[in-house]
Amino acid sequence: MLEAINLTRHFGSRTVLEDVSFSVPANGMTGFVGANGAGKTTTMRIIMGVLKSHSGSVSFNDTAITAAHRARFGYMPEERGLYPKQQVLDQLNYLGQLHGMSRTDARTEAIGLLDRFGIADRAKDKLESLSLGNQQRVQVAASLMHHPVALILDEPFSGLDPLAVDSMSSLLAERAATGVPILFSSHQLDLIDQLCDNLVVLSEGRIVAAGSAEELRARAHSRHVVVTPPDAGWLREQPGVSVLDVAGPKALVEFADDATGQRVLRAAIDRGAVTEFAPLRPSLAEIYREVIR
Ligand SMILES: Nc1ncnc2c1ncn2[C@@H]1O[C@H](COP(=O)(O)OP(=O)(O)OP(=O)(O)O)[C@@H](O)[C@H]1O
């Protein structure tokens, strides 16, 4: 597990991170979301030691993080970082060898990753001759070359077509399943919803929500769809019930607590037929919108 503990960072007189704490558990993907300028890249840079925090710390598997840990991490920085004029395969080979892989292992791994991303035929081309989306695939491949023990990826999915998103997400899910903590930032809430086991939401340098998707869903608003023919308007009169929408027999409601939900269900049965009484699982995207409001 990777942990950020009370990180604070200023730029001049501006505080861009304030007491930021969250964990990135092994066995799962953690989505890092927040508006432009919220502080995601700054946090990732601090985790990777590219930037120092003014207070707070980072730990990996319950010990203070060291350069040796970080050398075994995979990092895809916001500014990317491969050489545009160098051949794709050469760069991946070189990076693998920098991480201690033999020339043969590095080459095998590089070809395997390029193949996985459907761009093995571009191995001998200069990076700059690839489309932006394909360059992005190479950048992600670079971060995966040495079988990292943790992955920190700054917007790895931006600019990818749907097939590339699929191949990248299945590869990352495989790595996560082997116990590699993965933190990735994204503005694509639908993807976050699809991929993440954990979510960290940053707003103006502060954590506004963090935890497992299940915990966050359980903590979120308790919305229900209630269908009581012929007309669900009576729900408006019920204490502890906020009616968000009503159309004939169907209402979308929020209960103040579970007991209110049970009381309303009994009242609905007393009135006649109840054809639907169903909790709505909020998506992570909805949770994000709610906490960021
Ligand atoms: N080197 C720097 N000098 C001064 N201010 C900086 C520096 N780096 C980042 N900032 C400021 O810190 C704040 C957080 O920026 P950061 O890049 O971490 O946000 P972000 O959440 O990654 O945003 P985005 O989603 O747009 O990538 C911003 O206001 C940014 O202008």
**CATH level-4 homologous superfamily of the largest domain:** P-loop containing nucleotide triphosphate hydrolases
Shape: elongated
**In angstroms, what separates the terminal alpha carbons?**
30 Å
Report the biggest beta sheet as strand number plus sense, adding barrel if it closes: 6 strands, mixed
**What is the CATH T-level topology of the largest domain?**
Rossmann fold
Radius of gyration, rounded? 24 Å
Helix and strand sequence? EEEHEEHEHHHEHEHEEHEEEHEH
* CATH hierarchy class name of the largest domain: Alpha Beta
Strand content: 25-35%
The stretches of 5 or more residues where confidence is low (pLDDT under 50) are none
